[in-house]
């Protein structure tokens, strides 16, 4: 394979495995003018060989549609990749050592930024105190977001930069106090730092076979300059594609989303917070706290926003994790449908991000209202299970109900998979594995269904039904992978035997059984243009 460059006008890829419903046994593909022109067998490929600009010998590699990550915070992802990442810290002591080293290595930073601490996974289970952070930084301003980005710990010097008298205790900042602190910390990032972070994040995504990301920005998350700058940057690059969502409420928010070039006034428009920070909004109190979480929007707010978006031709969307928050979304969207018509609401494909605590009733409502479930399987891999954070926060019985992907698919609810990076890393094959091997067996889906949710599902979530699949006429967004033999993997023996038999004509995918190596990306192409080439290719 050649060095990274603009793709020639017409390319024949051959002698590989092409994952396509057009031909489950395809070994070759022709790309022309940024679109898939033909998919078929090796013998038929000979007829194209003389009429193309380039022939790529796949040497047995697998070609799949490029992944779409349907929920990303691009600048924050880039800052985590280039800055202080505490997600691997095994203890409080290790985290403080990383803070000390980072502060020493960055003497000129106005504010030190870090991410990813998770006290729930540390011995003792407590976050760092303000005094400990003051000592580790030598009294400099520091902002450290928890892994879920819904709370943070900061130094005294950072608090001194904020209006009022916020958080003068050792408790992590949450809710509005956290939003104020995050806004002040991110304001210290220079335009050059921000652009570097965005380029780093997009390049990293491309190296993982991701062709499109859905950027979830908003006034409580980033800034208008950050959001607009990212869309400008992406427009000038060959890829990955960036689809923007701006999370601001009401008619003013809808107007601002349109002005900024967003696909919707959606994404992390917070109805509640997160389970890890005790701010997800619940019908019943937490198992380890008397709290029931934080409600930022009620059903009336949601209904008004959905009406405004529907009438303006934009997607609405909400961050909702707790069962009370999901109920509020369902009630609000149903009230909007009563006002503007169910057909219009369904056609708009409004979104719910995370949607973790669902009941059979709310699953059915998602299907009725045409809601897209934009979900993150890595959350279950990280926090699920009998001994995980979900069980500690909710008790084992409620925890087992979380992230019911199989029930959503059975009900006909479209799924779009993402990472919420930097909450969990960009890791598309790991995400597919997490859904197929969910910690709660009844919520598992087939590898094929999970792969579809992470490719075609992301395109459907932005209103495109003609992309995310390698068939003639589709955008030539694809990735080339080095992997072991292909299989058809079902969640368990209850799935009909014929569906796992090669004679069924179902195209195979890599074996994602836990413990096996995940595929390695060799090349990523977006719209026919190469955006990543692996070392030595």
Describe the protein in words.
It comes from Streptomyces collinus (strain DSM 40733 / Tue 365). GO terms for molecular function: hydrolase activity, acting on carbon-nitrogen (but not peptide) bonds. This is Amidohydrolase 3 domain-containing protein. Residues 54-532 form the Amidohydrolase domain. The protein is an alpha/beta fold. It folds into three domains: 10-66 and 470-483 and 519-533, Urease, subunit C, domain 1, CATH 2.30.40.10; 75-188, Diaminopimelate Epimerase, Chain A, domain 1 (Roll); 191-462, Alpha-Beta Barrel (TIM Barrel). The protein has 20 helices and 24 strands. Helix 13 links the parallel strand 17 (351-354) and strand 18. Helix 7 (191-207) crosses helix 8 and helix 11 packs parallel to helix 13 (360-369).
